[in-house]
Protein 1
Amino acid sequence: MSWKAIHRWLGLTVGTLAVVLGISGAILAIDPVQQAWQAPAAPGDLTVATLVERVTRTVPDAQEIRHLPSGAIVVFSFAGEQPQASYIDPTDGRVLGPWQASVLPRWVKNLHRSWLLGDAGRWLAAAIALAMAVLCASALVLLLRRMGGWRRLAARVRGTLAQRTHVVTGRVVLLVLWLTAVTALTMSASTLGLVVLDAGAEPEVLSVVSGQPVLPGAQLAPLQSLWVKDLRMLNVPGATDPEDTWKLTTAQGQGWIDRYSGQMLVWQEATLAQRVVDLAVVLHTGESAWLWALVLGLAGASVLVFWLSGWVIWWQARSQTPQITGNVPMAQADVLIFVASEGGSTWGFAQTLQDALRKCGHRVHTSALENFQTTAATRQVLVLVATYGEGQAPAHARGALALISKPKANKGAVQGLVSVPVTVLGFGDRQYPAFCAFAEALERQLRAQGWPALLQLECIHQQSAQQFARWGLALAQALNEPLVLAHVPRVPPTTVLTLIGRQNFAAADGQPTAILRFAWPTEGLRTCLGTRGLARFSAGDLVGIVPPGSSVPRFYSLASGWQDGFLEICVRQMPGGQCSTHLLGLRAGDSIHAFIRPNPGFALPQTRRPVLLIGAGTGVAPLAGFIRRNERKTPMHLYFGGRDPAQDFYFGPEIERWLAEGRLSTLQTVFSRVPHGSGYVQDALRRDAERVRHWVSQGAIVRVCGSRAMAQGVADALDTVLASLQLSVAKLKAKERYAEDVF
């Protein structure tokens, strides 16, 4: 079972019970805080002998002196036949008031420790603590995978509100929750008798009546050399029993002192197990450290946040995972489709492929990649795989490479038949350095094992339905069949956006362009939760727009963030473009249906390092959004390329204003269709080679947005410019300092 499955099912089952423990633990954390404020703590340089002298002077019939974990001193005595306990001021022995063990209802503690079920409940609480420790361990593994390792653990978290809440809360309190689970296990082992704490039976120790007078407590040598901070409890010998002794308890052990000679009669060292349990009690309850108790209380309350956000995440993933229809049994299928998908979207492409193959008369079976094998009926195998994190396989397919390397995976080959072709199609995002890395690793493994291929490896960027359709044409030609892959992505819930402003540009090539600004919706809680398709977004994220008469969304890079109070995009008319035609025909007050797709690989991290922004045409839109939000005035340097400054200098007035305000440090513009326009952005980079090298040597973050051809030209130019620094675009990508948004 994968870590993700372990985390999911433990969270959904045991997590429900853990909420009760977390809330009750948060309530119990009030006790150490209250105790710390009720009475003064003993000074650090106060000896037990001095404390005894002060206490016996004001409470002559004291029976026991107890040093509480909070630092306060409590004295137990009798008023006639009535027992009483009082707070004592250790500086002068004054009685400050009565002491109570806890102001909280006893049932809260019993609920937390044993579910109000006695010993059986203690075993249940221990089992939940063990499950919580495993749950926290799985959470750490998944957190590191999601964030990209320890170095990126503090990076910005993207996703829905539930995902962000779950991850951010985990980063803050995960270690504390794991510690409370481990300490709870330690305490349970003690309570249930699974470990032996005592050094042995308490010895029968009596003072030897020697005719000498009883020494006052202040004159006992062991007490004179012991600080109050090390004291836990001191039992005073009874006045009516001449053989009774002083009994001293510290963290190191316990001893019995002769009341006549003042000598230590017997000393028992605390066992290692006892010391471990004592430490566990402090770490689990916050006793003796009220600030830590506050941390524990907040961590306990966070369990409810984890549980609620986890349920929302599970429900969203469950509702978005397609169910494959039309499967025939594997043994009867002539085409097998295997899928590896982390978020579920790749299954939608598999369904489209299966439906198209069935229309061509094939018997098709689709399954997860971890079920990889062939049968005597198999004639083609198609593998659709997504890459997760830093080039890993999706969680459910972690063992796929090892499985494929086994000969038994190809039953046809074992039986002497010709190995069937296995074709791999990868899905990923070019913003990540490890774009389709798992697909590439799978391709290498298959070829190394001798599996033939019908088509070479192809990689789909950002789930492009257009790229998928082009791959389908190549597959149809290879199969010599009329195969058509018309994939309709499953569109998330959308939000209605109203156009509130536009800037029109008449491009030199006759294709108009406009900057469109839409109002930020105010739909209350459902919008905030992201259930209506428009969660919080940032510049560089993508907005999916579904034009009328179509079910296929088109994506545009955002030039604004949610903090700006509006959503802004730059749209250029595409020949025959259904969505661009619709958008450019909008007037103020018209509306569209849209949803947000996060683009975390292109987002700018919080940094004070220089930022090098390179864009051409409408590709300047997300870069303008970065500059707009640069309130900290991080050094940003923009290279903008267009054709004619009079027609396509998009965001020109705003860029000039941001330059004057210091949000933009430098600006270099080039225009390719006017005299002395200086060519293209890659030409400007070569001319500014020295400055570019200086910025990159300072750790500059690079963002490139524009056409694929422009991005390739920029990459080639930067490879040349940075060669003297022993750097390249590939190395910058590997360090997550370089990202592209290309179209």
Protein 2
Amino acid sequence: MMAADFSDTGFSEATTASIATAREHSIGALLHRSARRTPDKTAIINGDVTLTFAELDTAVNRCANALTERGLRRGDRLALVSHNCWQFAVLNFAAARIGAILVPVNFGLGADEIAFILSHSGARGVVVEDALGQTVIDAIDRAAAVIDIQGWIALSGMPAPDGFQDATEWMSSGDATAVGVVIGDDEPVRMMYTSGTESRPKGVLLSSKSLISQYVSCIIDGGMTADDVEIHSLPLYHCAQLDCFLSTDIYLGATSIILPAPDPAAILATIESARATKLFCPPTVWISLLRHPDFDTRDLSSLRKGYYGASPMPVEVLRELSRRLPDVQLWNFYGQTEMSPLATILQPHEQIDRAGSAGRASLNVETRVVDDDGNPVPTGEVGEIVHRSPHATLGYYRDEEKTAAAFAGGWFHSGDLGIIDKDGYLSVVDRKKDMIKTGGENVASREVEEAIYLLDGVAEVAVFGVPHPKWIEAVTAVVVPKEGAQLTEETVDAHLESILAGYKRPKYVVFADALPKNPSGKILKRDLRSEHNDIAGR
């Protein structure tokens, strides 16, 4: 059934344009409104740079005008390759103000991988941090794209090479007049590339409607306020730090402290020195904070709100956090890039009683679990997690087939497997690709990981499947012991004997000094699978 057509309002084109201007609610408008409310309040602290909301708004206007002067237009793609810095925040809002589509790029990628993103996105411009400059220059040479706008962020003091301009100058001088471009709710303003479990990553298109709907869900269900002082240390190229936290702080008028990386010593020192109240970390980083020698010597009493996501928090780590940071409320944010990224939230009062749960659908989301035909499964049964929400992506850029599959039946299909209990709480069983099929039985890697974490002396663990001539896949665990702990394969197996069925217990246990992780703190199980792929034949 077609929606009713109310386009013939009888209004003139000029009146319609005036209404659109008055009603605009785009990413570019959020900062400006915060600057009008609290112009002199500190918006961003990044090393020696401190910007009030008024100063940040002016920098964004200058940058937006500079990009326009250099030929960037509505709908053009602007790639950004940089570690965390205040310039990243400016470019995010400046591109949105002129209707350009920002393409944040993982700074850990190689030249060929970046070249693919530049080519696939059709990027017109690129801005790069100096330390990453040569990789991006090589990528431009290999990309099938005309990159005629090239900006340079000199964080290390390296001068811009030929063809590049100092992007910080775009923000610190020039025309500060407000940009007069009116952006529609569902015009794309961002293209986020997935980390890619397939041969190539996909370009996830997000609009102001997607993002702002998600900000509202984060703010309401995540207990966020304008009084927050938040540390942002995870990569801003990832929408978790950028859109669940930095952009919501800008929207609210809260203060953001930007760190270049999630270094445990720097995070702990900054909580103390800046009296930070709020912190987001994936479980791997929370674990690194708990294990750092400074944890018990720094004054962390200002911290009141803690958030985690990207992967489940081990139950034993949750209990340790509640003991060692008793005044900190914790939230679990579950989602993915295609949901801008939030889908469900586990609230502070639910952390221990429902440990391991991803919570319930957030404010602007409806979530269910379905079978392979899209039908809801009975309560307590495993199925694929699907969502309906304005958070959802507009689709995968230039990929009709994957977009159609992702939105089959009018729901966004997450690719995660989960269970919803009688009270509506979601438990994520595993990614479809992480479910281990051994001897005809399905084993959820997370269940095995949780059991191993109960063993004293375990700092971190990752469980995955490797090829096996008899079992097809063999459950395999890589364990990182705590400092001074004496663990053996026999002690791990003896510990699990009374907890897990035999087919769930690892056939192989490997000990390591660390687990491979991406810059967002996610454990790279694909790297572990590759490294241990032939373990059955050794």
Protein 3
Amino acid sequence: MQNKIAYIVLVLIYSFQTNAQTETVKVNSLEEVTITSTRIDLPFKKNSRTITVISSEDIKNSAATNVADLLQQIAGIDIRRRGTAGSQADLYIRGGSFDQTLLLIDGIKMDDAQTGHHTMNAALPIEVIERIEIIKGPAARAFGQNAFAGAINIVTKNELNNSVSAHVEAGSFNQLNGSVTFGSNLKNSNHIAHIGKLTSGGYRINSDYDNSNYFLKSVFNKNAQPIEMISTFFERKFGAENFYTTNPNFNEYEETQNSLIGLSTTFKSNNFKIAPRIYWKRNQDIFLLKRNEPNFYRNLHISNKLGADVNTSYTSSLGITGFGLDVSQITMSSNSLGNRQRFMATAFLEHRFKVFNELVDITPGVAVTYFSDFKFHAFPGIDIGCQVSPNFRLYGNAGYTYRVPTYTDLYYRDPVTLGNENLKPEEALSGELGGKYFSSKFNASFALFYKDASSLIDYVKDVESDPFVAQNLRDLYTKGFEINTSYNFTVNNLQQNLAIGYTFMEDEVGNLNLNFSRYSINSLKHHFTSRLMTKITKSFNFNVIYKYAERTQGLSYNVWDASAVLNLKQFELSLTANNIFNEDYIETGIVPMPPSNMLFGLRYNFI
């Protein structure tokens, strides 16, 4: 560990010394990015929340080949994977559970009433992503109940010009990936299509997978009133060895499908912006406890969500008012969870105004949600920001949030697990204080955060031979801080970037008199990430990523990844190496992560 930290220090020293001898290069500034995952559109620089933006250029320069691996590089984001290609990845932010973080695609909520285990199955291929907006802390005021600990909005590209590219990758564990991405700009419409296939024989017994990705986005009537259509279909077939049990003889297996279709548009006038949208989302999950004996134990869950929302903002001399309405109908058919229905309606209201010669902005707001099975709940909150200088901003926010139980929490039954129909929603009060500094060469941010959560759901029992039963038992107090920096410099007039992030988090569990608990707290107590993105020549990029993690229960690990990309006009050659030093570690459960592995890639741009 000491040698690895010394290496990072040497890189830092070299970077600053080299930069002193070279000229400054202009870089794209995030302050020009408008955050679209809120009802009041604000430049990134003027937002009063802890928000991280991963741009398309960041994605291109990273060593990641999928969204799960990409988010692993962000301090404070805990992606607990169960294999390569982001297999069955669970998403955690600031100690929240996998059911407490909301994923959105172009603002469409991808929550799953069955379970949060399949949230990341909806993540898009990185080729079609414009940027990723990460909101840490309570976001229920903006999105509703599933944004308990935060939200991640994946923003897709609007156009790819007239282009066709093919991508092939091959590497360790018989990984073989292929994709084709198509872009077309017509006189009155734009179209983007992507088809991908990812396969692997697996790095251990029963860890093979066969994944298919289909994506289509079109913008119609773009010269008058543009209408956007997005459509996705993702299928995952994978060996799930010990994903849910510890029995080595079961050979678990799972197949999931995730599909989405949405239509949206935006009407704008001098003071008004109205953005209506309708969408349909479908999830399917088939689970076999014994892969080779499908009749031994089989679960089939199919859920559908039909939704419509409208977001409106109005600008006046009193400030900016954002308001909206979101309604959805959820239906589920399951051999183990039963046939279920839930109607949800959420009304949002917030107003941003400025005081003290517009140096301070205040944004109070509230969301009120009606659940057909849990009645009314409210999520108030407030953001306060102070523009200390053109480049430096202080901010604070606080919010109240809920999470209603999933159908798995409520109704699941097997010989060792029992749901509980009498569960109540989880709830929490969260707050943070932070600051942001932006310049063309150096960006930095810090935040102190606190969360007081109660009625958290755990599966518990008193006698070892009894089944686990879901109960609202746990109180959890979380506090911590995070620091993120990004430094742009040049070497021989070639642009480089060094980014470092660190998050410290401490959990305190309320008094519990339990003999056996399934969901023990195992958050990332220390999380350090660093990324060096360097241009060796104009056509050759090299990237190194280092991650150190120490969990609450004491497990720690160091992981190094790297990538190299060589651009040769229409050809692009890539090499991605993960877990370079062959670290032996586990991110969740008892599933060991893959040993050292490599992936070779070739991309050809036809147009």
Protein 4
Amino acid sequence: MTAIPEPIALSASRSKDPIWLAGPGLLYLALFLILPAAALMWLSFNDNAGHLTLDGYRQMFTAGIYVKVLINTFRIAAETTAACLVFGYPVAFWLAHMPERRRRWIILLVLLPFWMSALLKNFAWMVLLSRRGVVSQLASLIGYKGPIDLLYGHGAVIFAMAHTMLPLAIMTMLPTLLNIDGRLSRAAHTLGATSGQAFWRIYFPQSMPGVAAAGLLVFIGALGFFITPALLGSPRETVIGQLLITQVQQLLNWQLAGCIAVMLLTVTLVVCLVYDRLFGISAISGERAEPKPRAVARRIGYGVLAVLAAVTDLIDRVLTACFGGRRGWLLSIFGSLVVITLLLPVLFFPPMAFSSATFLQFPPPGFSLRWMQTYFTSDIWTGATIRSFAIALVTAALATTFAGVAAFGVARTKSRMGSGAFLIFLLPMIIPNIVTAVALFYLFAHVGLIATDIGIALGHTVTAMPVVFIIILTAFKNYDWRLDQAAGTLGASRRQTVQKVTVPMVIGSIVAAFLFAFLHSFEELTISLFVGGGVKQTLPKQMWDDILLQVTPTLAAASVVVLSVVVVVFLIAESTRRR
């Protein structure tokens, strides 16, 4: 019997394995991420004469200020991670147990502030938490006397950083919670388990890969934060990112900057290795991974869970006595309050942009178009906006091309190199953004790309590729490849199959990835701050300068423009991705 030909079937030979499609993206990351980061690390072992030395590390560890800032950075990152997990897990649990249609709308509300830049959110908190802000005004209405000073302290920094990273934590945990079989908990109740035991001994252990993935991403992201401590913190909240900016832009001390970068990378890689050992790094993308704890860790974990189960049962009895058997509304109230808090910065921008006041205040004393007119008639502001649009379009095109082709290759490969390619494409998400920016600044300074639009676009492409890669890879992994086989049996060539079957079926995810890459670039500040060289002003960089030099309602007008772009692009991306 003659076998049916399958033109699009993968050949067993390596030359036909589609993993080669990841090659251009891997080469791009090698040139603009791995090699610059390695060069920056090498600088830490060289003095100005090019001789090998450890003087930079001696200076870093013997000077009390550097050790203090290192410890402070790790402490702030750990506290931010803990806050995101504590507040994010109940919200993810709430979303996982609500009807699909309602969950989709709530997810949109959670994701909207996530795609709004940290710069804008922190700017909003500066206004809302100031001595004349909304919180102080509400306190005065209820009889509190004296100003409330909520800014420029440790609490404000942790709150604002957790507010920025919380949507990431929620959306990282949610896929794992959705995949948990609820019948297991019901079976535990049938066998006599209490509510606390069923949750902590059955449900929670199955959610641990998602919880750990959320903790990993939040912790790594928080290590590279510098915007929030700079705007909302005091000198006591100085973090590594601020030291890097000072060493590079003001002191030009590349050796010490390299030492600081090495320290950040070392801590990040150690955390990633521990996570990979326990859960598998692929769990970051939402894949199921079986935890692999050792016997000692397992016994300690079971002991902690037993204590938590007992405490939960005690709380459950108290709530039952107070509210009766129906207590689901408590979780709904908690989740709703968290979502409203996430949306607060989004809601407070428009009124301030149309204020008649000469300074930023909420609520505004009157309505005026003065500041919107100032924004649209200013060559500086409109020029920065147009430049941001152009750079974002180039970034989205590059990131979608490199990461999209690579995602296809990784999804279809049968080679072990697929897991290595997957990890490399996640590197820009794993390496702190501040380190990437400094490494690119060092590279581009040698090739003449500092203060150029193409340099900023190349840098933005590096940091946008992980999100694009994961979105498109997820689409390909959920794709039914039997459709391609059917097209092959009907005589379609491989090229025709890709063009007329594969791409049309995943085009929604590709367009969504493109738009999310656009948003990432449009609001990115860190790379623009370094690679732009203070000459090429993107809109976030112009807003950053305005916050540092002169805070006027023109800044609120620019924020409304950014917010409008984010909302429109975000809604289009989500609509396209669902279709």
